[in-house]
Design a protein that fits this description.
The protein is of the alpha/beta class and 449 residues long. Strands 9-8-10-1-11-12-6-13 form an 8-stranded mixed β-sheet, with helices on both faces. The protein has a two-stranded antiparallel ribbon with strand order 2-3. The N terminus is likely disordered.
Length: 449
């Protein structure tokens, strides 16, 4: 039975999401913080654009207002909800690499582009309030393996959000260890490769949010199925997935798997599963299939208390091999994280469209905390920083746009497809000189047992 209050909630979500982008929130909880740049209200784009090595800023999408209003529904074709995806497309390969449990401010909050006003890192006056009223500010980490793991359940994440104050990370972390570890950040020199990767060689975003204000399982499920099917800390009874859509459309898709994510990731048919050893060979040959999902070994996943430099090394080696692959000029690589892992971020997550009108999904009306995200591609709008709201289902929608597939739920139906980060009008750019790519720091923590 459908809750009659759900349509009212959907209208409220649409109005709140529009206000997030327009900066019209009356309480300040849903409006993005002032980064010192003038913001164009219709699109959320920074009007004083950073240097763009390819073309002028991307055009606005006339269907954006309808997506903000949650007007599209599951089954809607990408061609009916988006404009700007090229036909024919120069892309033959879409590659998706997802790491674990790191927030934007934890990884990039002091990136050099923050001081230039290009990325929205945490302000100097950001602080958390502990029980008893003491306040704590972010501190630079002195270790690459922060532990123990930080509470990042649905309940814990919502408490950290604290109705838009984003000041509860310290308190939530104290449930399983020192509260200060939730407020630790990495300086640029702590992550030299990531500092380069999120620099001006490619296109990035400082408004890429997790799909759910909760843990890994529901967030990965939104990437693969645009819903967690009513489950807040796990995944409910899955009815469909992107894997099903690709299989039905006879698309050549693969899952290169080191770590396994049972439950949060649909079980791929055996012929679609490949090893990381095969990934190395396929990168060298350029045979990546049309869609490739990449899961590194868990030891390289960056999930606390694992060593972030081990994960950075894995991503470094993958990106360098990808740039040298024959597939470079016909592919797009998305690199991001599944959720923020309990680490702090100062930007309140905006409202989101629930996946459907079922009562079990009514509370899935808000994104999770911001995550690092970068597009690595010969068609990336180099140096561009997107300030439009993106999420995991933006990646889902990009895959659907590539093959004009129907949306899996209302969430991906109303998602953008990251098209503002691409410049398909320009010829494919050559990859960066590998000699200019810094290596990651060596891991210093003992490997997991």
């Amino acid at each position: 039975m459908v809750d009659r209050d759900v349509p009212v909630r959907r209208i409220r979500v649409a109005l709140a999401l529009s206000c997030f982008l327009l900066g019209c929130s009356s309480d300040g909880n849903d409006a993005p913080p002032d980064t010192g740049n003038a913001v164009d209200g219709a699109s959320g784009d920074v009007s004083s654009e950073t240097a763009d090595a390819r073309t002028d800023a991307p055009a606005d999408d006339p269907l954006e207002a309808k997506r903000l209003g949650c007007e599209f529904h599951g089954g809607a074709r990408a061609s009916d909800t988006l404009t700007g995806y090229p036909s024919p497309s120069p892309l033959k390969h879409i590659v998706i690499l997802v790491q674990e449990n790191r927030s934007f401010d934890h990884v990039l909050g002091r990136h050099p582009r923050v001081a230039k006003g290009e990325l929205d890192g945490f302000p100097d006056d950001y602080e958390n309030v502990a029980v008893g009223g003491a306040t704590y500010k972010p501190e630079r980490t002195d270790t690459s393996c922060i532990g123990p793991d930080i509470l990042h359940s649905w309940k814990g994440m919502h408490a950290a959000w604290n109705n838009g104050k984003n000041d509860g990370f310290y308190v939530q972390a104290t449930s399983e260890g020192p509260g200060r570890r939730a407020l630790l950040y990495n300086a640029p020199e702590d992550l030299p490769f990531y500092t380069w990767l999120y620099g001006d060689a490619f296109a990035t975003s400082d408004r890429f949010f997790a799909s759910v204000l909760g843990p890994t399982a529901p967030n990965r499920s939104y990437l693969y199925a645009a819903s967690s099917f009513g489950a807040k800390d796990g995944v409910g009874a899955r009815t469909t997935s992107l894997f099903d859509s690709l299989e039905t459309a006879a698309i050549d898709w693969r899952v290169y798997e080191g770590a396994m994510y049972p439950g949060s990731q649909p079980d791929p048919p055996a012929p679609r599963l490949r090893t990381l050893v095969q990934l190395t060979a396929d990168l060298a040959s350029g045979d990546l299939g049309q869609v490739a999902f990449v899961n590194g070994e868990f030891s390289n996943s960056e999930h606390p208390p694992l060593d972030i430099n081990a994960g950075e090394t894995f991503v470094h080696d993958f990106v360098v091999a990808y740039m040298a692959s024959p597939a470079w000029s016909t592919s797009a690589l998305f690199v991001t994280y599944d959720e923020s892992g309990g680490f702090f971020d100062h930007v309140p997550p905006p409202p989101a469209c629930p996946p459907d009108a079922e009562p079990a999904n009514a509370e899935f009306d808000r994104y999770g905390f911001r995550l690092p995200f970068v597009l690595v591609s010969a068609y990336a709008r180099n140096g561009y920083v997107s300030h439009r709201v993106h999420s995991h289902t933006s990646i889902t929608r990009f895959v659907e746009a590539a093959f004009d597939l129907g949306a899996l739920s209302d969430r991906d139906a109303n998602s953008d497809a990251l098209l503002d980060l691409f410049d398909f009008a320009a010829p494919p750019a050559a990859p960066p000189d590998p000699s200019t790519v810094p290596a990651a720091l060596p891991p210093t923590c003992p490997p997991p047992p």
